[in-house]
Amino acid sequence: MSDRVRESDGVLRLHPMKAAAVRHGHPWVFAGAITEVEGSPVSGDIVSVLSADGTFIAWAAFSAQSQIRARCISRGTDEYPDEAIFRERLQRAWSLRQRLGLCASGGVRVVNAEGDGLPGLVLDLYDETASVQFHHPWVERYREVVCSFALESLAASTVVDRSQRAARAREGLGQSQEVIAGSYDSHPRIVEHDVVYVVDARNGQKTGFYLDQRVNRALVSEWAQGRCMLDLYAHTGGFGLAALGRGAAHVTFVESGSATIDLLHQNLSSNSVGPGRSTVVRAEVDAFLATATDRYDIIVMDPPPMARRKVNVAAALRGLSWQLGASVRVAAPNCLLAIFSCSHHLGTAELERLVAGVSLEKGRMIRVLRELSADADHPSVPAHPEGRYLTGILAEVE
């Protein structure tokens, strides 16, 4: 055992029958896999993860409360995750986005937690506003480092802490929503494929915008010319505005949140979309579909998380099945259908089985054209399927 292992804040020894996933690259160590905790680590401390025979596996950030008792950060004994490693990974994540050319719109995910080797940290940039989420006590200790990085390396003038998710409660952390650098005087704007989006980085959903859907907005909008589209769970208009930007004849936006609809109207105005090309309906999706009579050439269904836990999957599938069946009822011949799930418990295989069942029930052929996922600024670790939370399928309804 190296001196560095002995110098850690604690040691976790894993059960011989439950260590395989971690050894093979999964970044999470669950409480049930641990047979012994040496030392007295507290949440946020760095611990060494060892196999039952004492073989070093990884350095990890410890949590005293979460069922995910540790999150692996590095796997070399000489890669102790200190501040220098943290700073290096921040810069490496930013360099990747720059190399991939994902920064041109002004809206980009700079750090995607485990996918960038920084578990618990999400950092998005909207023009000159950085929106950050600290979901683990380890990254909470580096708040000032992240803030300085956003101001200096990302050239942000404002940094907003959006650490409000339930994940913080599971880690024993309080909720936080505040401006931690600069001032938030107005909503930032980004320009994606010539479409302007106003982003509420202070109070909007997630960190303010669904950056993960950038590639899918572009894909769906390729077929929008002259067609009528139904944008369900429209949020601030992401898919529908992209379609209008590519020549869609008309888009019907269905959204239930009043604040979100206000921002949707701002986005329509910012893109000079006249009332003849768009209709905004404030309603729950089920209520809208129950009485809908118009036919649509493109339908996008991008619901919020419906199966955060495995026990929720059956109920989520029942709800999605009804919504998909109702959508197929209003689908014009050769309608393009995009349906998404943002829960790893309900992935592509489940969506395809769902589509197959609705196709048989409604007596309409539905062909899967493509599987969909998040854009490249949301990387994931191959052994960590939970990190690939956004899945979808693009299909044609005959």
**What is the structural class?**
alpha/beta
In the CATH scheme, the class of the largest domain would be Alpha Beta
From the spread of the alpha carbons, the general shape counts as: globular
| Uncertain residue segments | none
Strand content: 25-35%
CATH fold label of the largest domain: Rossmann fold
The number of strands is 20
Biggest β-sheet: strands ordered side by side in the sheet: 16-15-14-17-18-20-19
Whole-number count of domains: 3
Give the fraction of residues assigned to helices: 25-40%
The radius of gyration is: 23 Å
For this structure, the quaternary state is: single chain
Description:
It is a single chain. This protein has helices at residues 3-6, 20-23, 83-99, 137-140, 143-152, 166-170, 214-221, 238-245, 258-270, 285-291, 313-329, 348-362, and strands at 11-14, 28-30, 34-38, 46-50, 56-62, 68-74, 107-112, 121-126, 129-134, 158-163, 176-181, 189-192, 195-198, 228-232, 250-255, 278-282, 296-301, 331-341, 366-373, 391-397. α7 (214-221) packs across α8 (238-245) and α10 runs parallel beside α11 (313-329). The radius of gyration is 23 Å and the shape is globular. It contains twelve helices and 20 strands. With 398 residues, the protein is α/β, with parallel strands linked by helices.
